[in-house]
Amino acid sequence: MTIRLRSAAEDDLPFLNRLINDPESTGLHQWYGWQDPHRIRRRWEENGMLHDDGGLLLIADGDDRVGFMSWSKQVTSRVAYCWEMGIIVAPEFRGKGHGTRAQRLLVRYLFDHSPVNRVQATTEVSNMGEQRALEKAGFTREGVLRGVGFRAGEWHDGVMYAVIRADLDTRI
């Protein structure tokens, strides 16, 4: 397994659309209803899905598209921000360690290319697979966020994980 992150190309757009708009592909914890099927193309045409406030990179294993990682800027104070990241792995690649490796790569990338001190991620309390992946990737569980996410007609509790720059040498 040689997981790498790469920028999106035009021929990746159908794959990305599948992971966002196909309930069978998004998985239980990522299905938020149908979305504008042209949104991905518009974002790609506008900026290649990379901009100062966040972005999206594909997870690849050789020639295989495995999933994608995204991140966005979260203001933490008047003079600081952190990155919040998310991941969707295609169903055929789940449970094989691809997500853990991709999360490590994105954390390293974000710390190498921005002055932030923190990268965070949230997931639903029932998403045990993602919690294990985050912990294996070096994240620390920080706490439960009650009623933070709305999905499938209900409010769900979330779990916040984070890694700070000082953790890099010991965990990432």
UniProtKB/TrEMBL annotation:
PANTHER family: FAMILY ACETYLTRANSFERASE, PUTATIVE (AFU_ORTHOLOGUE AFUA_7G00850)-RELATED (PTHR43441:SF2), RIBOSOMAL-PROTEIN-SERINE ACETYLTRANSFERASE (PTHR43441). Its EC number is 2.3.-.-. Keywords: Acyltransferase, Transferase. This is GNAT family N-acetyltransferase. The keyword Coiled coil does not apply. The keyword Transferase applies. It holds the Pfam family Acetyltransf_3. It comes from Nonomuraea guangzhouensis. InterPro entries: GNAT_dom (IPR000182), Ribosomal_N-acetyltransferase (IPR051908). Residues 3-165 form the N-acetyltransferase domain. GO terms for molecular function: acyltransferase activity. PROSITE patterns: GNAT.
